[in-house]
Amino acid sequence: MNRGPRLFLAMAILCAGLALVVDGWSRVACICGALTCLLAYLRPSTTNRKDGKR
Questions:
Q1: pLDDT for the residue 53
Q2: Residue 5, pLDDT score
Q3: Which residues lie closer than 8 Å to 34 by C-beta, 6 or more apart?
Q4: CA–CA dist 6, 12 (Å, integer)
Q5: What phi, psi does 40 have (nearest 5°)?
Q6: Which of 16, 20, 28, 54 has the most CB atoms around it within 10 Å of its CB?
């Protein structure tokens, strides 16, 4: 399975950890950010090709 850059996984972990600390709407924003980064890691864009063809 093709994965996205590991930076997305690191950002998802960071946002999830921050969601444990903050409260209110900030927690909601952190959870949404963590889910977005996790989805970007698990389902990378198909437009990024390694062979350089357009």
A1: 53
A2: 86
A3: 11, 12, 13, 15, 16, 19
A4: 10
A5: -65, -30
A6: 16
CB 41 within 8 A of CB 12: yes
How does DSSP classify residue 51?
S
User: What pLDDT was estimated at residue 42?
Assistant: 87
Q: What is the pLDDT of residues 2-51, one digit of tens each?
A: 677 889 999 999 999 999 999 999 999 999 999 999 998 888 776 655 65
C-alpha 49/C-alpha 47 separation (Å) is 6
Helix runs in 1-54, H state only: 6-21, 25-42
